[in-house]
Design brief:
CATH topology of the largest domain in chain A: BirA Bifunctional Protein, domain 2
Largest sheet of chain A: 11 strands, mixed
Strand content of chain A: 25-35%
Number of helices of chain A: 14
Strand order of the largest sheet of chain A: 3-9-10-16-13-12-11-24-27-23-22
CATH architecture of the largest domain in chain A: 2-Layer Sandwich
Shape of chain A: globular
Oligomer: homodimer
Helix content of chain A: 25-40%
Largest interface: A-B, 65 and 65 residues
CATH class of the largest domain in chain A: Alpha Beta
Distance between the termini of chain A: 28 Å
């Protein structure tokens, strides 16, 4: 494996794939479109999960687990949802293998073991969950029902990319039931806010909060709230969505409750999810031509310490010092790795932690022992400083916070510089094809215009921002009247 | 739903199912053999996961994630493993649905969307993982490789029971690779020890550590180490297994490494797992005719506090006191629920927490406020005591520990009283059919005898205990010579 990473400016897509490979995050598997998430990549996901799970529980949600399979008859019950996912479903048709009589040592599907009803591997779990909720909800006392599930789902995508779009992916899916429309909408909006908070405070990835146009909505939703991030190549990434499902699933699965007044009413629903796709967003928001750059709050290793030594004796002296540092850092819940492997030289270790995006690297050698110093290197700015050991722990703690903030500020500046207002279709095309990013434009509100623009530019409506101000104008494409600008972009 | 639980002595199996239903742990789903794990049951699993995950990481393991699907050609590569699981596999054959031309609004499998190679939904992941390890292992420097995965797996069991045997279940599976046989065996034994420690210290469930006879081994293993627990009805439960896989998978997937001496060698492997089955074991170890009994270390709610009041004013005074108690308990990481719902009466709440196995219940009423007391009720012994509020937090902390120990002692006593040495087949049959539990008997070491005994008594060899002493004797069935006793039992 060549040490040299392709530069972003040369080939952004190749750079992305190489980072994933060289930083040991994930790889393609023997199953078409399915990835193996390697330990270092999975540790990032675990950190994401821990924070999100805490945020969900703090807002009253509980975890549960529903079956991987959805019987076809349930899958097709909510028609729009079924239609939206039918074209990319893994379908289980048999439940047994047998020895292949024609090929010794090989197996074949046992034709006798055909299922009476096919099972769909869940692409999303509304159907199986709402079929279950029917038994759980009788009275207003059972509401709201606030449930989340961490699970794997499968969507048979034709073109896949590690983390961004894989046939199987890991995610969380919240599914809630409410007695009123107001409450359900508030829940959907709350979850959008939580996703945005997570993206910005932990991933250091600024997002635009908005809602989807009809054609970009989740299949079966009345409204889809989204958080949209911007990658360094000017393409947008839908990073999380929260859906107000109206009474669509309640009606499809006949889920009613008795109100305080004794009336039978359909319940109101939401669902919301983020997935391992976030790791793709994390990579493309911060990383540079030297490799991955991770925000400290999600980095599996926040500080790597590398001894510079000749011979066992020097290593022993250094190790003694480092052990004290490691202990102090751990007591502050800072994740630290002392890399004293003797099978690699310091230079190779420096390169490895640079590639892996470890926020801080500390080198400590013989002279440092004499001078009571260490060398601290920041991954984000690549600055190096020689620091006294005396106040090191505080220094590191503050520096990690500073890095977290710096990464966010930098990404926010990039985002702000890449939201461009345009007032003509020529301008629109120019920006999309050169500068990229979000294009803020008037749109006449029709699907026809949306489709035409997509056809001509590959740009889609990413969202109508929550805070879009009312402003009279004319659609950049059709010239029809419009009351607010929406954000277009090419997207992952 | 009737409040009354079937008694264990009446119908143990019915009692088990009712507890799961009434304590809101899980339920059967619309998918044959697959369960829905409800929030309260899932919270127990989350507590189990947290402790096990910590223990795995403390012993150097890292988490990763491998695909849900195994291509048939990989699945069949290790012959014994394939043979062991082929008869109970969910098989994906198609990747798309289409509108059913004969039934408007219905879907059918698109016959055009047939996979070239069928995909098996993983019943266990050795095949896909060893196929991946081939790319990860080149040199002795890459070893040991110590990886764990938390995942769902599917085994198309014909007879299923909630938690104990379900078509889909949740588990963790460790898969490790080593340069020497000694190291791999030590790993397998270490994981058996960790499982035993978890079972005894957290689940308060005593286990026998042993290894399996050949016919009870994992398909593809050279040795299977097991922990075997004993349920209250005298049946054994295999609670966790750890396999020394020899070089079987390394050879099937051609995984070699270059040794320090520059030689090409096959690596040595282990795999090990525990699953949501543990929740079944937890239920059947401690619970009683009043409902679930949970050990404090795994209870989602350790302390439930119930106000006894008339009118809003009294509740306000009580709530003020309780809030201080709740805060103090939480600062000690004790999980507490203040149940001030006005839709249920205290009696109903008492019954609910009894059914749900909450270790401690605190009642606090008007008189308690006057006397500076609370009433504390233990779920395990059903004792109630009136306690001063002054030293309450310490009292609760100690009492939770005492309950944890008491549950273990009680279960251990039951286990000790249900390991019966027998020296004839008549005795063997009598014990198995009356007292139940483990029967410690001499066995001639042949599969024929094992099968015959199973046929005649339904008892199987649960394990050869790790600490079985050498003792000359004669097989209870065949009269042939034997050098140690093994443990038989009827099992779940």
């Amino acid at each position: 494996m060549s040490k040299k990473l392709t530069k972003r400016a040369e080939d952004y897509s190749k750079w992305y794939n190489e980072i994933i490979q060289k930083a040991d995050l994930a790889e393609n598997s023997a199953v078409r479109g399915c990835m193996v998430i390697k330990p270092y990549g999975f540790a990032i996901w675990e950190n994401m999960q821990a924070e999100l799970d805490r945020m969900f529980k703090e807002t009253g949600h509980q975890n549960a687990y529903f079956p991987l399979f959805v019987p076809k008859s349930l899958f097709e019950a909510e028609e729009k949802n079924a239609e939206g996912f039918a074209k990319e479903c893994a379908v289980v048709t048999h439940y047994r293998l047998q020895n292949d009589p024609d090929h010794t040592g090989k197996l074949r599907v046992d034709p006798e073991a055909k299922l009476e009803e096919e099972l769909i591997v869940r692409p999303t779990s509304e159907a199986i969950i709402w079929n279950t909720y029917k038994g759980w909800i009788q009275s207003y006392r059972d509401l709201p029902l606030l449930i989340n599930q961490w699970a794997n789902v499968v969507r048979w995508e034709m073109r896949t990319r590690l983390f961004l779009r894989t046939a199987e992916f890991l995610w969380q899916e919240g599914h809630t039931a409410h007695s009123t429309k107001t409450e359900a909408v508030a829940e959907a909006v709350q979850m959008q806010k939580i996703y945005a908070e997570f993206a910005e405070s932990f991933m250091a990835m600024p997002v635009v909060k908005g809602y989807k146009s009809e054609s970009e909505r989740f299949a079966g939703a009345e409204d889809t709230y989204t958080i949209e991030a911007l990658m360094q190549d000017g393409k947008a990434l839908q990073a999380g969505t929260s859906h107000f499902l109206g009474q669509n699933f309640a009606k499809a699965f006949d889920v009613k409750y008795t109100s305080k007044e004794g009336k039978q009413e359909y319940v109101w629903a939401t669902s919301w999810g983020v997935s391992t796709r976030l790791i793709g967003g994390l990579i493309m928001t911060h990383s540079d031509d030297l490799g991955l750059v991770l925000p400290p709050k999600l980095a599996p290793i926040q500080v790597a310490i590398i001894p510079i030594y000749k011979g066992e004796d020097q290593l022993a002296v250094i190790s003694e010092k480092v052990e004290i540092i490691v202990k102090s850092l751990k007591s502050k819940r800072i994740s630290v790795k002392f890399d004293d492997r003797d099978t690699f030289r310091p230079g190779a270790k420096f390169a490895e932690y640079e590639l892996k995006g470890v926020p801080l690297r500390i080198a400590i050698g013989n002279r440092d022992i004499e001078n009571n110093t260490v060398e601290v290197a920041r991954r984000d700015t690549l600055e190096k400083k020689t620091i006294s050991q005396d106040n090191l722990i505080n220094y590191i703690e503050n520096l990690l916070e500073e890095i977290q903030e710096n990464l966010f500020s930098k990404a926010l500046l990039y985002q702000k510089n890449h939201i461009t207002e345009v007032n003509s279709f020529d301008e629109f095309k120019t920006i999309i094809n050169t500068k990229g990013g979000f294009v803020s434009a008037h749109w006449d509100g029709t699907i026809e215009t949306e489709n035409k623009i997509k056809e001509l530019t590959k740009a889609t409506i990413r969202c109508i921002p929550n805070d879009a101000k009312e402003e009279l104008g004319f659609c950049v494409f059709s010239g029809e009247k419009s009351v607010r600008r929406v954000l277009f972009a090419k997207a992952y």
